[in-house]
Write a structure and sequence with these properties.
With 135 residues, the protein is of the alpha+beta class. Helices cover 52% and strands 13% of the residues.
Length: 135
């Protein structure tokens, strides 16, 4: 099991979510802009886009797709003096939370999303599942 799969599997387990499949894509800035335009009518760059498919639960086959732009993570992490791999880990958590129904438009929803992200990231740190550079 690779690092991304281990991290995503643990997030789903931690949130007590059952599904057969979750698809995570790492895409370029150009690709994320095209996806953003296609699905949200916004051609700007973003860090993460999610496309939900099935509702979480016993009959869930494909929870959905998460598209992550590592270049965005790199720029943000460097600008804020953060670890790039931790930032990418956060984007995976963020995307999965979106697929589980969390939102980040209204301030109350943003607060719930940030609290859930922090809780899960702390859990992943304890389990030593934050992404690391390849050996």
């Amino acid at each position: 099991m690779d690092q991304v799969e281990a991290l995503a599997t643990e997030v789903l387990h931690y949130k007590d979510v059952q599904c057969d499949e979750l698809i995570i894509h790492f895409v370029s800035v150009d690709q994320i802009k095209k996806l953003h335009k296609k699905h949200f009518d916004d051609a700007s760059s973003t860090d993460c886009i999610t496309l939900p498919m099935d509702d979480p639960g016993p009959s869930c086959e494909i929870l959905g797709e998460v598209f992550i732009c590592p270049d965005t993570a790199i720029v943000y992490a460097k600008r804020h003096r953060l670890d790039i791999y931790e930032e990418c880990s956060l984007y995976i958590v963020h995307g999965i939370l979106h697929l589980l129904g969390f939102d980040d438009i209204e301030s109350a929803d943003i607060a719930k999303m940030r609290a859930a992200e922090k809780e899960i990231m702390d859990h992943l740190r304890e389990k030593n599942l934050i992404l690391t550079p390849p050996n």
